[in-house]
Amino acid sequence: MRILAVGDSYMPSSYFAEAFGGVLDDHDIRFADITPDPAFSPSTKSETRLREYQGAPAELASWMPAVDVLAVHGAPVSDAVLDASSQLRLVCCARGGPVNVDVEAVSMRALTLVNTPGKNAEAVADLTLAFLVMLARRLPRAQRFLEQGNRVRDNWDGAQFIGSDLRRHTLGLIGYGQVGSRVATRARSCGMAVLVHDPYARSGADGPEQVDTLGELLERSDFVSLHARAGAGNEHMIDAAALKRMRPGACLINTARESLLDEDALDDALSRGHLGGAALDVVDAVASDGRHRLLRHENVILTPHVGGATHETLAQGAEMIAAEISRLAAGEPLVNVFNAPAVAL
User: Fold this and answer.
1) Three-state secondary structure along 270-304?
2) What is the pTM of this model?
3) Which of 104, 264, 335, 336 is the most buried if burial means most Cβ atoms within 10 Å?
């Protein structure tokens, strides 16, 4: 097979090269990196269906003739790219959500699209645990104390920063999928009691306690962490009413999607002192530059969507793609087919 593996500035093709080496040596493989093109503007219906991509479809299409398998991370896969090879059999996207691929165009051509769900689960779970520790130990306030030029003169002066262990506290997980289940394992190893609310997943007999309602989870938890999928049915699931049900002094963590949380309501709950703190890896996009409004609270942590930003995450994504291509070559069923209802496997 002729394979084209295209990287970008976030995930260079070197990750594909390392994962493919020794696994796909019997195939003709070309590695390339898409050129960032800030001037590119979508001009076709297919191109307007693409999101979070880098480069222009025309460059990718120029590499496509005679390609059997296309593997990308963030390069734009439009209908023009798909039509540039009459031999194309498989499209691979090394992301949890193939938003840079025109899925409709792929399915209309009866092509199979595979993605890499859960590739960042370990990394996001690690960050969630880090947020738990930072909030419990009141590290945001301690850090800002030093940033403002203050010093602790003695041990007694440091009493203002006394925080808590994770043990003897309860963590409520909203969502128990790839990330939530891993967070539960980490939290339980730290001595936390864990509650789970997820209508679509069960924690099992040896797992955390499952609660039937979101309200019960909020009322019983010292920390609440969001791990639900985003959708029209759960936009702002954590709103003013939900925040009021949380225990006074409880902390909120969001490493999932910004749409799950009403930031206006969170800002108000923090201003009133109802919450003990918040840590967010995802926030609503704002039109103006400058310091985010939530950072005026000394008990808030914000990070710029770095939950899955690790070398291991990128390597695992490439390895998952290599495994799918190997299955295709061997005539075996593919595992992570994104458009399964539209194609005959």
Assistant:
1) HHCCCCCEEEECCCCCCCCCCCCHHHHCCCEEECC
2) 0.94
3) 336
